[in-house]
User: Fold this.
Amino acid sequence: MNNLPILFDDKVNSPELLALMRQFGENTYLTAEEINKMRDGINELFANIGGNQLIQNTGLIRNGQVFTFQPLWVWKILGEYYSNEQIIMHAVQYSQAGYWRMVLFYANAQNEILMNNGQEVPLSQSPYEPTLPANCVRLTALPVYESSYGNWQEPIIGDNFKDKSESSIIDIYNVGSLPNLSVNSNAAHFRIHNASDLKSLYLSEISNNYPGKLFYITNKKNTEFVIPHNASGVNIHQPFVFPTNTNYTVQPNETLTFYWSENKLNYLSSNMSVAAKRTFDLHFYNLSLSISAANVNFVHCKWTSWTFNSVTSFTDLDLVTTLQGSSEIITPYKCKVIGVSGNYGGSGQNVNCGIYKSSGLSGSRLTPIYKFRLLDGGQGISDIVDYNSVIDSNKGIKLGFKSDIAITGTYGVLTVHFEEVL
Assistant:
């Protein structure tokens, strides 16, 4: 039984009871103020020796002036576990010229990772690290100069983070369907040898669960087995949840990683995801562009049995653009653009290109997913802008061109490379 922290409300003195106790001497009783002070002191001691600490560090990445905490950092405050399920980003501005400061990152009991910018001081002085607020966990701190950052301090994991038993592997030889797999240990890796499906885990109190705890399921069979998405019903306890909202077929020797949150096992990754992704290319050959005036486009290109021959007009290649009347290709499955390649020449003018995902309606508003520039004279492609946009299955893709001047009779080839998104 865990008796800490002590969470009772403040005690209040009763004048009648206090008068009664005083006749026995002040050394024979405690006032309400003294009881409250003892409670606060015990809780403070508990927090300092293990109640508040970092449990899991999944990574901190800097890109320019933006610092990104990866999902599933885990920390403990007053015996309770907390975690960020999404990335958390903080922009850290440089200090003014001739000054520097210390920036503190810390976590609270609302599953947040926060930043305190600290006070700037002249370079001749030493800045103080901002004070850590009560009931929070210090993650890291770093010095910030007028045009650079110092090295951030490696986050310190609490002493009682993971029991070694959490790294244990358990082999499961049950045959047939498994509504639940009872886990009566702290192990987190299970290898399936015979079962046809696994619907849930049944995690006991001794499993030492906390938000973000990682679990692993490995298929040791020579054939596939299925893990249903968010199974329910009799004997279903902690189900598995997949972002696709569909059942997952586990391949031989495939290992899936899940994280525990809100009494469910949420899919994180697979050791085969990259190899299993399908790819396809759109090949536009004998690409002929005839643009009679700036921003007016005649598109004539072929892809397998698809033929495009239409007039397309749009204003620019920025965030949202209207294309009218152009043909489109329908995606075979959920995917994203991973690159383009090709050659173009003959006009003396570079041509801007945009790939858009559409609703399939003529004249509908479109969203760009990829932008690039075809360089004249067979010089390849430059100025790529990848919006990292996912295109759902059975959605339209359109290709648009733009030139700042009129061009006529230019030719080239263009290939757009796509990869499946699992």
Remarks:
- DSSP finds three helices and 33 strands in the chain.
- The two ends are 43 Å apart (CA to CA).
